[in-house]
Amino acid sequence: MEKGKLIIFSAPSGSGKTTIVRHLLQYPELKLEFSISATSRPPRGEEKDGEHYYFLSTEDFKKHIKHGDFLEWEEVYRDNFYGTLKTEVERIWAMGKNVIFDIDVAGGLRIKRKFPEETLAVFVKPPSVDELKIRLKKRKTESEDKINMRIAKASVELATAPQFDKIIKNYDLDTAKQEAYDLVAGFIGLHK
What 3-state class would DSSP assign to 84? Predict the structure, then answer.
């Protein structure tokens, strides 16, 4: 099977990485397919299995870990696992496409270490931790405690930014989207 490219977007929650990834998926010339992560957490709101995440029980997730089925995985919070199944990347490469990830910082760096040549790892940097808190509160999807946990985690994640290939500062979303497009187009060898 021919390997495509792996394009990783990582950032603290609320930095805009999901918005940027969705934007890039609109461009057929980039030949991107979204890597659906597996998680042991329950669906939120309108989330659907096989579209937003592969929702697994904690027990099933642990079985997959034991069998070496993950490219990367992490226990983000106690009994709250996220990971990328190897079969997901194989599925996308079999379609002749490049894999785009919207993934946490630790997972993104793990994939980069496993596939250094095939991977572009991009860190999306928010204007500030205060701005992150405002964005997370505007979502109205999580409790104050959960938001505070995410903010504490964000400070640690921001320190990893220099380990990524590129950093996009998301101070202005349109500029960040254009910068992301240019980076990906250059990486896959597409010249405008």
Answer: strand
Report the domain count for the chain. 1
In a domain, 192, yes or no: no
Rounded CA separation 183/67 (Å): 35
Global model pTM greater than 0.85: yes
- The set of residues, in sequence order, having a beta carbon less than 8 Å from that of 16 and lying 6+ positions away, is 124, 126, 170, 173, 176
Q: What are phi and psi of 90, to 5 degrees?
A: -60, -40
Quickly state the pLDDT bin for 169 (edges 50, 70, 90). very high
Q: pLDDT (tens digit, 9 = 90+) per residue, 129-158?
A: 888 888 878 887 778 888 888 888 888 899
| Residue 59 in domain | yes
Tell how strand 54-55 and strand 38-39 pair up: parallel
Burial of 117 (0-12, 13-18, 19+ CB in 10 A): exposed
